[in-house]
Design brief:
It is built from nine helices and no strands. By secondary structure, the chain is mainly alpha-helical. The N and C termini lie far apart (39 Å).
Length: 225
C-alpha cells in the first residue's frame, strides 16, 4: 500500500503539515515583489512568467490544503482542537489565493501604475510581505508550543510575535490610506475603469497583511483555550 506523505508528516509532529502548507503559501506571496518590479519595468514576458509561477505555487498550496483536510485524523489527540487546525489552514490558504488574484488581474489587464504611486506601492508590498513572513514565523512556533504544553516562556515569545504582527498590519493600513489619497488626486487624469482597478489592487495588497493578522488572531484564540 503506497504511503501518504501527509500522514507521514503527522508521524513527525501533528502540526508539521500545517507548517509545510504555510511555507508554500509564503513562498507564493513573496513572488509578488519581483512580479511588480517587472510590471513597473514594463517587461510583460517576465510578468507573465512570474504570474505562472505564482499560479503554480497557489495550486500546490491548494493541493496541500485538500490533502491535509482529507487526512487529518478525527481521532488525533491534540491540545489543539481539529476544528481550530482546519480554520488555521483555511486562513493560510487565503494568502496564495490572494496573490494569484492580484497577479492575474494585473497581467490580464496589463495594468499600468502612475509613477507617483509606484514607490509607495512597492513599500506597501514589502510591508504586507513582512506581515506574511511574521505569520509564517508564528506558525513555525507551533511545534514548540506543543512541546511545552502551551505554557511557559514559549507562550510569551509567541504572544510578542503576534503583537509585532499587529503593528505591521496597522502600518499597512496607514500606507494604504496615503496611496489612496494620492490616487484620488490623480483621478481626473486617469481612465475611470483604470482607477477602479488600481483601488482594487491596493486593497488586495493590503488584504495580505489582514489575512496574516487573522492567522495571528486565530493562534491567540488557540492560546486562550
Amino acid at each position: 500500500m503506497p504511503s501518504n506523505p501527509v500522514l507521514e508528516m503527522f508521524g513527525h509532529t501533528p502540526v508539521r503539515p500545517l507548517q509545510v502548507h504555510m511555507e508554500k503559501a509564503y513562498t507564493c506571496v513573496e513572488l509578488l515583489l519581483p512580479f511588480f518590479q517587472v510590471v513597473f519595468a514594463g517587461d510583460w514576458n517576465r510578468v507573465s512568467a512570474t504570474q505562472q509561477e505564482i499560479a503554480k505555487l497557489e495550486s500546490e498550496a491548494d493541493n496541500l490544503k485538500k490533502d491535509l483536510r482529507l487526512h487529518l485524523p478525527r481521532s488525533l489527540f491534540l491540545p489543539i482542537p481539529r476544528t481550530d487546525l482546519l480554520q488555521m489552514l483555511i486562513l493560510q490558504d487565503q494568502l496564495p489565493n490572494k496573490a494569484k488574484d492580484i497577479a492575474g488581474l494585473v497581467l490580464g489587464r496589463k495594468m499600468t501604475f502612475p509613477a507617483v504611486i509606484t514607490q509607495p506601492f512597492i513599500e506597501l508590498i514589502k510591508r504586507s510581505l513582512d506581515a506574511a513572513k511574521q505569520a509564517h514565523k508564528v506558525i513555525d512556533e507551533l511545534d514548540k508550543l506543543l512541546e511545552t504544553g502551551f505554557r511557559g516562556n514559549e507562550v510569551k515569545i509567541v504572544e510578542n510575535m503576534i503583537i509585532e504582527l499587529d503593528k505591521i498590519e496597522h502600518s499597512t493600513d496607514e500606507m494604504q490610506i496615503k496611496i489612496r489619497s494620492t490616487l484620488y488626486g490623480l483621478e481626473n487624469t486617469l481612465s475611470p475603469v483604470d482607477v477602479v482597478f488600481l483601488y482594487k489592487i491596493i486593497e488586495w495588497t493590503g488584504d495580505l497583511a489582514d489575512i496574516s493578522h487573522n492567522i495571528g488572531e486565530q493562534l491567540c484564540l488557540i492560546l486562550a483555550r
